[in-house]
Amino acid sequence: MLIGRLPVVRPGRADSVVPVDSAQNTPGPAAPAPVWEQLAPGVARRRLPHLDVTIGLVVGDDGVLLVDTGSTPAEGARLRDQARELTGREVTDVVLTHGHFDHVFGACAFPGARVYGHRSLDAYLLRERRAQREAAVRHGTDAAQAGLGAERLVRTSHPVGAELALDLGARPVRLVHPGPGHTGHDLVVLVAGASPRDPAVVFCGDLVEESGEPQAGEDAVPAAWPAALDALLALGGETARYVPGHGAVVDARFVRAQRDALARRFGA
Ligand SMILES: [Zn+2]
Question: Which residues are bridge partners to 59 per DSSP?
């Protein structure tokens, strides 16, 4: 199981996180070890070096769920291999929190997995495929990989409306559309605490960002964003650990402050 094998890292910026292998063993000249941060028993996340994207991992008795897939097919393949290394199993379920390239272009690396996204995600990706490829290149993603990611876009096998409950085996998970905000089709992942001592974990997608101002593009729905964060806070409550799409794990107070800042910023 995941628990004992996860490297424990200091919270902080992605580029300041120390791979446990190089911190505890003799560092070698080869590639750094993957860095995963354990958030609760069987629940982890990592921050990718490229664009500081959060990837979540939830391990149940019967399934292994990945939250988002990185910016390229190559990143997705590395995540697939890391998840296998950490859990000894294949990823069975993939949740796409929204259709921006840095969350979905790695999805083609998981051909056997069930893929969950909001029910309007497929139409969005079909429409925005080219724009997302261009955005990827603009943000410094390798152009060939961005092209491949756009070409191999994955359709959801399990579209989600308002909510969908998953049971990964002794690990209930809820996928919830808290309303539009960062996009019109945001999906968040609520992992209930395994015991009273374990807080719930909420993977927020880009509805919450810690390492920068929340990004609001043409596809954002600013007027509805604060209400989506109210719904998010109602889901996780005061004690949950909130995992932003980019940046360090935050608490309810941070989410509430960001909600208020967004309301001021957009006059909502
Ligand atoms: Zn985004």
Answer: 64
What is the CA(47)–ligand 1 centre distance, in A?
15
pLDDT in tens, 92-133: 999 999 999 999 999 999 999 999 999 999 999 999 999 999
CA of 209 to the centre of ligand 1 (A): 10
What pLDDT sits at residue 121? 98
Residues with CB under 5 A from ligand 1 (ion): 100, 206
Strand, coil or helix: 166: strand
* 55 residue type, one letter: I
Sort 194 into a burial class: Cβ within 10 Å, 0-12 / 13-18 / 19+.
middle
In the predicted model, residues of the chain with pLDDT beneath 70 are 1-34, 268
Question: Which tens digits make up the pLDDT trace of 252-265?
Answer: 999 999 999 999 99
Q: Could you tell me which CATH number the domain at 3-266 has?
A: 3.60.15.10
Q: Are 98 and 183 in contact (CB under 8 A)?
A: yes
- Going from the Cα of 215 to the center of ligand 1, the distance in angstroms, rounded, reads 7
Rounded to the nearest angstrom, the distance between the alpha carbon of 98 and the centre of ligand 1 is 7
Distance (angstroms) between ligand 1 centre and the Cα of 22 equals 31
Q: What is the DSSP letter of 235?
A: H
Q: CB of 130 within 8 A of CB of 150? A: yes
The residue extents of the domains of the chain are 3-266
Instruction: Measure 242 CA to ligand 1 centroid, in angstroms.
Output: 16
Q: Whole-angstrom Cα distance, residue 81 to residue 89?
A: 10
